[in-house]
């Protein structure tokens, strides 16, 4: 299998995630954009691991770590969003700034 | 009432202390130093120092006693005259402060201490003229007095610095010792001292502040603007006389100033319609007479006349205050016929007017006679002053004697005789016009007695004495005859009534000049200097508006900027590599 | 192009398309559900790249935990005015800049990978089974693994503190 397919998919997911982070008004969906970008990174890691095929499985182990960190990040992020919502009764980033 | 007498008590303590100090010196001819601290007249500390030493010699002792004596009497007088004023306390305490400053000026040997006292006196004068600050006239008079005497103070500061630089000491005695070895810069020092004297003693051309200071309380006028502060100018001239005695320029200038002021003041006093203002012009004229004595080289005669004048002019002003309290105005038109209603005031002020006119048994006659004699001696031309100048000065002084006698008689007649023509607000003398209370009449009696007592032991110069007596009697007689014939004694040519428009430079020209200059400065400040702050302000505003765009409080804008930055960095990295 | 590659391309199109829908959908819950599709497709991609254990973890953690959490959060933060129409503008004013940036990032990354790894192929020599990954994790990577557990604990405590601090008041 060509290495380019997963890499190109990863690039596309990263661009879409970036757009989501920068464009969505809802803070929860901004976090979803971040998750997408992280997934693009995971895809890269796994693809290079399969291509490089070293003994330590570096790419796949790092992917595991990234998934764990992403889970932690989404937990904290959503806690912050909920605190924000309790404080100003909105999660609209445009209105929060006002 | 008791609290008011407390301030009298403070003044009395001050007077007693000074008396203990000064009375033993009266008979002595030698100079006594009262050394406070370790410094002496020679071997003093390095320059400039503020030594609290006092130097007392006979003339000083007399003036100190005059100052505290009149001050004490004025305090007693004020308990009745001004006792119910809401600001009586500050009034009484400022008088005490003034007396202390006067003692410092008269007694010190240190020029800087003298300057401090001189300034404090000016400040007290300002505060007390403006005591009734509710009235705009009093405010204006106080400000004018303060500003004009400031010019004099500038002259004094310059004089002190020049003396210090010339003789290497700021000690009066030290400077005199150094001067006797090698006189230097006599003309410069003398002219600067003359500036100081002209301002403080209200001589021509800085004379206009004294009449305008009359809105102040009358006891204050008696103390500061007749007996002590204005006389301090003359005292300074006498005290520093030795330092400029060699300069004919200074003596001539002084003589010219004295001649102009003496005649002018007497003539202005004649035309006044206000008793207090007339007495103020009279003070200007008499101060000029003292200055003339200094100019002809006899400062002793000047300080003697200062003493006598201080007593009888304080008497006249305090009497004027009694009259004002009785009729409620200081205008001559509201007076007249007060002789029977106010006998004590009448008799004491009669003594005062006699001394002013220079009639025989009073102190005023003897001291004026001494001054005239000194001028007469100077006409031989070997006393520093040119003979011609001295002759002119003598003639002017004699004319002034005539005018003085005439206006003194006029004021006396208009105040106490007649039927009270047009008197009072109701046309006749009201029932409430009566003799002043004891606290006011008492000081009058004391001063009247002093007017005669001071003539004891005064030297008599037969020639000038006879001449001046004849002239003064002629002046008195002329006015009395005119009054007997029914004249209203209101002969006042227009230039004299307008005081020769000499106030105009102060009231208009300087004002206009100052206003114009200030306007230029304001424009400069606004158009030139302010450009920098305004430019800085608009620059800062522009920058912060630009920076404020970045501070949108919107997370996504920040993230966008971040992303753009990253992309640009990558692009730059790719392009460069 | 063999069968594996065909399947991979199909999954890739599915993943990219559903990701696009997730990021542009006006319905918030729909967005979350589209994300499930994306994550599932990516998990399929992992399987095709011989990383089966990662694929399961992806399904378990992302699809099972993260998306559920997100849906809960969406429901908790639902605002009154969005309930009725659901058609309010869900994107901000700078979406065009965001779109340009997204395209630039994708194209840039894609161009870089094409330039760098144009002819490379994945052979599948080492299969990422649970056994082999576990072996690597607990021998070579045990220290980072333990540190990660500390990070997770800290995140847990932080999340609890954050969500409790508001309700105390």
TrEMBL record, chain A:
Residues passing through the membrane, by range: 33-52, 64-85
Q: What domain of life does the UniProt record list for this protein's source? A: Bacteria
Q: Where in the cell is it found?
A: Cell membrane; Membrane
Q: What biological processes does GO assign it?
A: ATP synthesis coupled electron transport
InterPro entries for this protein = NADH_UbQ_OxRdtase_chain4L/K (IPR001133), NUOK/Mnh_C1-like (IPR039428)
Query: Which is one Gene Ontology cellular component term of this protein?
Result: plasma membrane
Name of this protein: NADH-quinone oxidoreductase subunit K
Q: Which GO terms describe its molecular function?
A: NADH dehydrogenase (quinone) (non-electrogenic) activity; quinone binding
Q: How does it assemble?
A: NDH-1 is composed of 14 different subunits. Subunits NuoA, H, J, K, L, M, N constitute the membrane sector of the complex.
What UniProt keywords are attached to this protein's entry?
A: Cell membrane, Membrane, NAD, Oxidoreductase, Quinone, Translocase, Transmembrane, Transmembrane helix, Transport
Q: What does this protein do?
A: NDH-1 shuttles electrons from NADH, via FMN and iron-sulfur (Fe-S) centers, to quinones in the respiratory chain. The immediate electron acceptor for the enzyme in this species is believed to be a menaquinone. Couples the redox reaction to proton translocation (for every two electrons transferred, four hydrogen ions are translocated across the cytoplasmic membrane), and thus conserves the redox energy in a proton gradient.
How does the protein's chain sit in the membrane according to the entry?
Multi-pass membrane protein
Q: Which Pfam families match?
A: Oxidored_q2
Q: What is its EC number?
A: 7.1.1.-
Q: Into which family does the record put it?
A: Belongs to the complex I subunit 4L family.
Gene3D superfamilies under this entry?
Answer: 1.10.287.3510
Question: Is Ribosomal protein found in the keyword set?
Answer: no
EC primary class: translocase
Q: Which reaction does it catalyse?
A: a quinone + NADH + 5 H(+)(in) = a quinol + NAD(+) + 4 H(+)(out)
UniProtKB/TrEMBL annotation, chain B:
Q: Name one GO molecular function term.
A: NADH dehydrogenase activity
Gene Ontology cellular-component terms for this entry are:
endomembrane system; membrane
Where does the UniProt annotation locate this protein?
Endomembrane system; Membrane
Q: Name one GO biological process term.
A: ATP synthesis coupled electron transport
Pfam families associated with the record: Proton_antipo_M, Proton_antipo_N
InterPro entries documented for this protein: ND/Mrp_TM, NU5C-like, Proton_antipo_N
| Transmembrane segments annotated in the record for this chain | 5-23, 55-76, 88-105, 141-163, 183-199, 220-238, 250-271, 311-332, 344-366, 386-408, 438-456, 462-483, 558-576
Q: How does it sit in the membrane?
A: Multi-pass membrane protein
The record places domain NADH-Ubiquinone oxidoreductase (complex I) chain 5 N-terminal at 58-91
Predominantly, its location class is: membrane
Domain (NADH:quinone oxidoreductase/Mrp antiporter transmembrane): give its ranges: 109-375
PANTHER family named among the record's database cross-references: NADH-UBIQUINONE OXIDOREDUCTASE CHAIN 5
* Protein name, as recorded: NADH-quinone oxidoreductase subunit L
Q: Which organism is it from?
A: Aeromicrobium endophyticum
Q: What is the lineage of its organism?
A: Bacteria, Bacillati, Actinomycetota, Actinomycetes, Propionibacteriales
Automatic annotation (TrEMBL), chain C:
Q: Which InterPro entries match?
A: NADH_UbQ/plastoQ_OxRdtase_su6, Nuo/plastoQ_OxRdtase_6_NuoJ
- Gene3D superfamilies of this UniProt entry? NADH-ubiquinone/plastoquinone oxidoreductase chain 6, subunit NuoJ
User: Which topology term describes how it sits in the membrane?
Assistant: Multi-pass membrane protein
Q: Where in the cell is it found?
A: Cell membrane
Which GO molecular function annotation, any one, does this entry have? Answer: quinone binding
List the catalysed reactions.
a quinone + NADH + 5 H(+)(in) = a quinol + NAD(+) + 4 H(+)(out)
Short name of one Pfam family:
Oxidored_q3
Give UniProt keywords alphabetically: Cell membrane, Membrane, NAD, Quinone, Transmembrane, Transmembrane helix
Q: Which GO terms describe its cellular component?
A: plasma membrane
Task: Identify the EC number(s).
Answer: 7.1.1.-
Task: Write out the transmembrane intervals.
Answer: 6-24, 31-49, 55-76, 96-117, 141-162
Enzyme class of the recorded protein, top EC level: translocase
Q: What family does this belong to?
A: Belongs to the complex I subunit 6 family.
- PANTHER family linked: NADH-UBIQUINONE OXIDOREDUCTASE CHAIN 6 (PTHR33269)
Function recorded in the entry: NDH-1 shuttles electrons from NADH, via FMN and iron-sulfur (Fe-S) centers, to quinones in the respiratory chain. Couples the redox reaction to proton translocation (for every two electrons transferred, four hydrogen ions are translocated across the cytoplasmic membrane), and thus conserves the redox energy in a proton gradient.
Under which name does UniProt file this protein? NADH-quinone oxidoreductase subunit J
């Amino acid at each position: 299998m060509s290495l380019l397919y997963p890499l190109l998919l990863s690039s596309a997911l990263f661009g879409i995630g970036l757009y989501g982070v920068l464009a969505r008004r809802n803070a929860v969906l901004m976090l979803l954009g971040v998750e997408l970008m992280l997934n693009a990174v995971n895809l890269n890691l796994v693809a290079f691991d399969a291509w490089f095929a070293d003994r330590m499985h570096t790419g796949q182990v790092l992917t595991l770590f990234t998934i764990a960190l992403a889970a932690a990040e989404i937990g904290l992020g959503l806690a912050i969003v909920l605190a924000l919502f309790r404080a100003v009764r909105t999660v609209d980033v445009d209105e929060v700034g006002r | 009432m008791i609290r008011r007498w407390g301030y009298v008590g403070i003044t009395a303590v001050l007077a007693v202390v000074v008396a203990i100090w000064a009375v033993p010196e009266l008979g002595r001819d030698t100079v006594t130093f009262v050394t406070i601290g370790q410094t002496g007249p020679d071997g003093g500390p390095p320059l400039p120092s503020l030594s609290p030493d006092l130097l007392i010699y006979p003339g000083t002792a007399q003036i100190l006693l005059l100052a505290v004596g009149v001050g004490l009497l004025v305090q007693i007088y004020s308990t009745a005259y001004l006792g119910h004023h809401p600001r009586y306390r500050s009034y009484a305490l400022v008088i005490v402060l003034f007396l202390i400053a006067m003692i410092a000026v008269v007694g010190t040997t240190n020029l800087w201490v003298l300057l401090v006292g001189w300034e404090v006196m000016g400040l007290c004068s300002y505060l007390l003229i403006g005591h009734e600050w509710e009235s705009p006239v009093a405010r204006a008079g106080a400000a004018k007095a303060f500003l004009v005497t400031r010019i004099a103070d500038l002259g004094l500061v310059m004089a002190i610095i020049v003396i210090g630089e010339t003789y290497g000491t700021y000690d009066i005695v030290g400077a005199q010792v150094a001067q006797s070895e090698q006189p230097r810069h006599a003309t410069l020092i003398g002219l600067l001292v003359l500036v100081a004297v002209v301002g403080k003693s209200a001589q021509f051309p800085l004379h206009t502040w004294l009449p305008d200071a009359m809105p102040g309380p009358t006891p204050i006028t008696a103390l500061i603007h007749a007996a002590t502060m204005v006389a301090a100018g003359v005292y300074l001239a006498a005290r520093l006389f030795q330092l400029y005695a060699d300069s004919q320029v200074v003596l001539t200038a002084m003589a010219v100033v004295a001649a102009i002021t003496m005649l002018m003041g007497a003539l202005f006093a004649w035309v006044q319609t206000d008793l207090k203002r007339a007495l103020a012009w009279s003070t200007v004229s008499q101060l000029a007479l003292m200055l003339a004595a200094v100019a002809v080289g006899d400062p002793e005669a000047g300080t003697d006349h200062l003493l006598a004048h201080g007593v009888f002019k304080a008497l006249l002003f305090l009497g004027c205050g009694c009259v004002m309290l009785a009729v409620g105005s200081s205008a001559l038109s509201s007076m007249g016929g007060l002789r029977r209603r106010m006998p004590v005031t009448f008799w004491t002020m009669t003594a005062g007017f006699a001394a002013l006119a220079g009639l025989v048994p009073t102190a005023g006659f003897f001291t004026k006679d001494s001054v005239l004699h000194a001028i007469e001696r100077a006409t031989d031309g070997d006393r520093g002053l040119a003979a011609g100048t001295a002759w002119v000065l003598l003639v002017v002084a004699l004319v002034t004697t005539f005018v003085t006698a005439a206006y003194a008689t006029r004021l006396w007649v208009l105040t106490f005789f007649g039927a009270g023509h047009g008197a009072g607000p109701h046309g006749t003398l009201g029932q409430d016009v009566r003799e002043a209370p004891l606290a006011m009449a008492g000081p009058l009696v004391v001063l009247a007695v002093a007017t005669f007592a001071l003539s004891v032991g005064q030297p008599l110069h037969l020639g000038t004495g006879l001449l001046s007596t004849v002239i003064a009697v002629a002046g008195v007689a002329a006015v009395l005859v005119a009054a007997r014939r029914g004249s209203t004694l209101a002969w006042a040519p227009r230039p004299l009534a307008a005081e020769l428009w000499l106030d105009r430079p102060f009231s208009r020209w300087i004002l206009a000049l100052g206003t114009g200059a200030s306007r230029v400065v304001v424009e400069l400040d606004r158009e030139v200097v302010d450009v920098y702050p305004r430019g800085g302000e608009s620059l800062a505003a522009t920058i912060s508006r630009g920076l404020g765009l970045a501070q949108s409080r919107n997370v996504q804008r920040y993230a966008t900027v971040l992303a753009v930055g990253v992309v640009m960095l990558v692009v730059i990295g790719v392009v460069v590599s | 192009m063999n069968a594996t590659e065909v399947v991979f391309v199909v999954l890739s199109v599915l993943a990219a398309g559903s990701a696009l829908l997730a990021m542009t959908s006006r319905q918030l819950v729909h967005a979350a559900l589209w994300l499930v599709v994306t994550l599932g497709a990516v998990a399929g991609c992992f399987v095709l790249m011989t990383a089966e254990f990662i694929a399961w973890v992806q399904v378990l953690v992302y699809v099972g935990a993260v998306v559920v959490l997100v849906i809960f959060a969406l429901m908790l933060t639902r605002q009154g005015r969005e309930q009725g129409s659901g058609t309010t503008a869900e994107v901000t004013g700078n979406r065009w800049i965001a779109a340009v940036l997204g395209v630039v990032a994708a194209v840039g990354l894609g161009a870089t990978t094409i330039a760098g790894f144009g002819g490379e192929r994945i052979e599948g020599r080492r299969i990422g089974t649970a056994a082999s990954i576990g072996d690597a994790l607990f021998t070579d990577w045990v220290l980072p693994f333990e540190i990660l557990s500390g990070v997770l604990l800290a995140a847990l405590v932080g999340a609890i503190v954050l969500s409790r601090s508001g309700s105390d008041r």
